């Protein structure tokens, strides 16, 4: 019996000692980490301008100097346009290693920038994160051009704000483009004009709708040709 009591006392002493060690363990220290914010337009062709009214997907990320994703704080997407050169916030989302902003319906050319708010730790189990901004992403936008063809006649509509405005047509001569004719839209923005076609071979054309007022120029190329047994045709890219 005495041996049992001695063993029990030893076990109790060991348990007390273990408890004291756990209580006296040092707390986690808060660190201050710098951050990097990135922004991208993943599904756009950089060689082709977006058209007025299109939806654009915007993605991004916030990472810390430790290499991990940042989930504290918020990220705001700003748009700088000709009508608002100071810039304006258009969406705010929680910080993340994979930012997904709401789809952006574009109305004019703009420059986009993502701004991370930073974060101040509220306990010793959190870290501080410094604010950061992304590199700007340019988003050129053209007016909306709807163009159809029937034979060698082209018709359609250009919006917004393109009433009685020019549509420049150039013909390719050798390796150079030379002015052929300038047509104008109606007060509604609609247009209709006919291009000539050769008896043999093809003639190549370049059609341009000018920019301005927050838009970049819109441009396309095409060709006209003839069949012996059919009416002349136009092909527009």
TrEMBL record:
Superkingdom of the source species: Bacteria
Keywords from the UniProt entry: Signal
Span of the signal peptide: 1-29
Protein name: Carboxypeptidase regulatory-like domain-containing protein
Organism: Nocardioides seonyuensis
